[in-house]
Design a protein that fits this description.
With 148 residues, the protein is an alpha/beta fold. The protein has a domain of 86 residues: Nucleotidyltransferase, domain 5, CATH 3.30.420.270. The protein has a five-stranded mixed beta sheet with strand order 3-2-1-4-5, with helices on one face. Strand 1 and strand 2 form a beta hairpin. Helix 2 runs parallel beside helix 3. The N and C termini lie far apart (67 Å). The model has no long low-confidence stretch (mean pLDDT 78).
Length: 148
Amino acid sequence: MKMPIQSKEEATFQMAPMIDMVFLLLVFFMCASQMSQRQNIKMEIPEAGKAVIPKERPDRWVINIDLAGNMYEGNINLGDDLAALEARVKQKFQEDPKIKIYLRADKNSPHKNVKKVIHAMAKIGIEDFIFGVYIPPASRTANAPPAQ
């Protein structure tokens, strides 16, 4: 019995689905990068050579203090009105009693501005906060925790 010979088609690579996936990934990363930058305003933060980067930093609520003493909830300007900040902190604390704060202050801002914010948080009952600092590249490798 004679078997019919089937014509062999060459394998082709479909570009349309690949282009669609590239555009979807591009849009995703553009949106994700915008969300990660929303919490911080542009400022010079203090250097700390022996600082350690905490793992839970992205989960914290960000409070910024600029050079003029203006306070920001993320990037929302609250001015120098401590009562407005206290109201926002109370609201956040009622929503989440285990709230953690990431406090960033300009390195040239007077310490009294930072102290006001710390006292406002303590008065409400927030105990868990960290300071935002810049770790110079030379110190990053020296202070890195040992690999496990």
